[in-house]
Amino acid sequence: MKSRSKFTRRYVVAGLSLAATGGVHASCAGVMRSARHLGSKSVSEVALVNGGMSLGLFPKNGGSISHLTWRDHEILRRAPSDMANVTDMASFPLVPIVNRIPEGKFSFGGIDVDLEGNFLGLPDFIHGYGWTGEWSIETANQTEATLQFQYGAGGEWPWPFEARQTFRLGKTSLWHGLSVTNLSDHPMPADLGFHPYFPASEATRLYAQYDGYWLNNEYGHAIKRIPGSFRQDFTRGAPVVNSQMTDQTHYGWTGKAALIEPGRPTTIITADKACNNMHVFFPPNGDYVAVEPTIGRGNPFGVLPQEYKIVLPEQELSIWMNVEVSGG
After folding, report:
1. 3-state secondary structure of 293
2. Helix (H, G, I), strand (E, B) or coil at 310
3. By the 8 A CB rule, do 161 and 192 touch?
4. Which of 53, 59, 181, 253 has the CA that lies 20 to 30 A from 305?
5. How do residues 152-194 score in pLDDT, each as one tens digit?
6. What's the pLDDT score for residue 44?
């Protein structure tokens, strides 16, 4: 039997590379091969530029984003130079599942699934496989790139699949698409999401409209829908730097959020209508906030309503997110 550890603030902050204490912090570029390039179609970094916007991608590190800047502003939290862990990155994909599956156990279509814990030594399985896997480059030019990831047959996840990310960099925006295709012969449960980190200060306010939030148990598992707001009322605009950690899924999200701070450009996050949930995470006294558009929430196979999609063989499930800046 897997041992059970409580999902405490100490565990989370330590596991997210000590961001709150300073350890981590969400016109001709083309494809850039760094000094650590790994050969054709397998470079360690892809750099896109469009006007004042700059985007860095690291396919080998979870298909993640290393930075998104506009002029001299960090729009996403820039990854440190050593990039020791994918949670240090500016953003990473959530595929084919988001958030936590308690103890990695669930049943679907007559199959009992038992996944190994993959985060902080906890028994829970979190965020799927894309964020810890190596992605390959399908295409890339000055302003667009497509990354691909495959999970083959015979693994602990019973359904082989293929995932793709598409990045389109505008002069003031980033459009980010994510898809998963079921390569198995049986229906597959799936959930998709994005995990971007944004810089934050005591002056930053997050605005978003939603119906309520999911109450978590002591292990960080969503167990009950509660109308309204948890600790911060983001429907009226609320700070994202606080002495207490927030790690909450908000349901009935309208698909739009804004980060506003005097002296910085306003950041607008919009997402596919399939992304009914907005997960918000920030550590105690930190300097960043994760605003995560997702289809479902943690514990998707647990309490009702269960929140995941059923993807038939050879069928594709896709979502998108757009990050746009203005002002500044």
Report:
1. strand
2. strand
3. no
4. 181
5. 999 999 999 999 999 999 999 999 999 999 999 999 999 999 9
6. 81
> Of all residues in the chain, what percent are helix, strand and coil, respectively (each to 5)?
5, 45, 50
Q: How many CB atoms lie within 10 A of CB 246?
A: 22
Q: Which two tokens stand for residue 252?
A: 């009935």
Pair of tokens at residue 214: 């999911």
Token pair belonging to 94: 């959530």
pLDDT tens, position by position, 78-116: 999 877 689 999 999 999 999 999 999 999 999 999 999
Please determine, for residue 143, whether its predicted confidence score (pLDDT) is greater than 90. yes
CATH number assigned to the domain covering 9-326: 2.70.98.10
Cα separation, 274 vs 168, whole angstroms? 20
Domains of the chain, by residue range, sit at 9-326
Beta carbons within 8 Å of 90's beta carbon, 6+ residues apart: 26, 56, 64, 65, 66, 67, 68, 76, 77, 78, 79, 196, 197
Which 8-state DSSP code applies to residue 87?
G
Cα dist. 129→71, 135, 291 in Å? 33, 11, 20
Average pLDDT over residues 108-126: 95
**Beta pairing partners, 46:** 57
- Tell me whether the omega of the peptide bond preceding residue 96 falls within 30 degrees of 0, making it cis: yes
CA distances from 280 to 57, 102, 238 (A): 23, 19, 12
